[in-house]
Design brief:
The strands form two sheets. Strands 1, 2, 3, 4, 5 and 6 form a six-stranded mixed β-sheet that branches. This protein has two domains: 158 residues, 2-Layer Sandwich (Ribosomal Protein S5, domain 2), CATH 3.30.230; 129 residues, GHMP kinase, C-terminal domain (Alpha-Beta Plaits, 2-Layer Sandwich). The protein contains ten helices and ten strands. Helix 3 packs across helix 5, helix 4 crosses helix 5 and helix 6 crosses helix 7. Strand 8 and strand 9 form a beta hairpin. The longest helix has 24 residues. The chain is α+β, with helices and mostly antiparallel strands.
Length: 301
């Protein structure tokens, strides 16, 4: 085993299509310029994961991820120490768990002196993310690994198509630092889908159509059309029952501040929103005035 080694992965936003992507519709996602880094070393004693992020330190799932990733790569987990440094808030929909999975996988693959193919990295990353989210679609680890803008359709293997913005796509992200668990939202939505499949399939179909329209808007640099797609996707996510009063308040604040469109990103039930408009910094200032944390980022570059 070769140590020390390091792995890094990007945070992400889902521009359009969350939840519906689990049911076979396309999703549109992009990496953001914030990263999680995992450094592997060997020390005496049991395997452990160290982090300066309290929310990760108090969560037992990262240790499970370490053990499972080592097993996948044929490494003994005894004596492994992984130190995590993250620029991503946990539990708000910006892909911190997928970034952790991919970064740890990359660091351990380097320790095992193994070069993973893109397909292997994505398959393993999705299995590791399942420790956090139960039955993920795979879109989060794809965005974490690639860091670009991509159209994603679930499958074995998934269908991934690059979407290249013709002009810089700058988004305003806003959130309150109150983590929520995506797995419980996914489970509740599945129960509602099982109870009324026809209604939910209709909503998923409409979301899928928005993804393709949004991908064309991104490629064309048409942020007004993308904003309209955000707004309609948010309305559909509300119909699916995955929004929240906190999200609706942030979305409303963004629209009043001049956003062309705004929506939740990720699992919902709280967490982050994304907004697109002509003046991202002014949007961020308006949302920060409501007490939200804000990030202005260029995505999918």
């Amino acid at each position: 085993m070769k140590v020390p080694t390091c792995g890094r992965a990007a945070g992400k936003v889902i521009l359009l299509g969350e939840h519906a992507v689990v049911y076979g519709r396309p999703g549109l996602a992009a990496g953001i310029g914030r990263f999680l880094t995992a450094e592997v070393s060997a020390e005496a004693g049991a395997a452990r994961l160290e982090t300066d992020r309290a929310e990760l330190a108090a969560d037992g799932r990262p240790a499970r991820l370490l053990t499972e990733a080592a097993r996948m790569l044929g490494l003994p987990d005894d004596g492994l120490v992984i130190r995590v440094r993250s620029e991503l808030p946990a539990g708000v929909g910006l892909g911190s768990s997928a970034a952790l999975a991919v970064a740890v996988l990359r660091a351990l693959a380097a320790a095992a002196e193994r070069t993973l193919t893109a397909a292997e990295e994505l398959a393993m990353g999705t299995r590791l993310e399942a420790i956090f989210h139960g039955h993920p679609s795979g879109i989060d680890p794809a965005a974490a690994a690639l860091g670009t803008c991509l159209r994603f359709v679930r499958g074995e293997p998934p269908a991934i198509t690059a979407v290249r913005p013709s002009a810089p796509l700058r988004l305003t992200i806003a959130f309150h630092e109150r983590p929520r668990r995506t797995s419980s939202l996914v489970t509740a939505l599945r129960q509602r889908w099982e109870a009324d499949r026809a209604r939910h399939e209709r909503l998923f179909d409409e979301i899928g159509a928005l993804v393709d329209a949004g991908a064309r808007a991104v490629a064309d640099g048409d942020i007004r059309t993308l904003g309209s797609a955000f707004d309609r996707n948010q309305a559909l996510l509300s119909e699916l029952g995955v929004s929240s009063p906190e999200v609706e308040a942030l979305v409303g604040s963004a629209r009043r501040a001049g956003a062309f469109g705004a929506k939740l990103t990720g699992g919902g039930g709280g967490g982050a929103i994304i907004a697109v408009g002509g003046e991202p910094e002014r949007l961020a200032a308006a949302l920060a005035a409501t007490g939200a944390c804000t990030i202005v980022t260029e995505v999918g570059a």
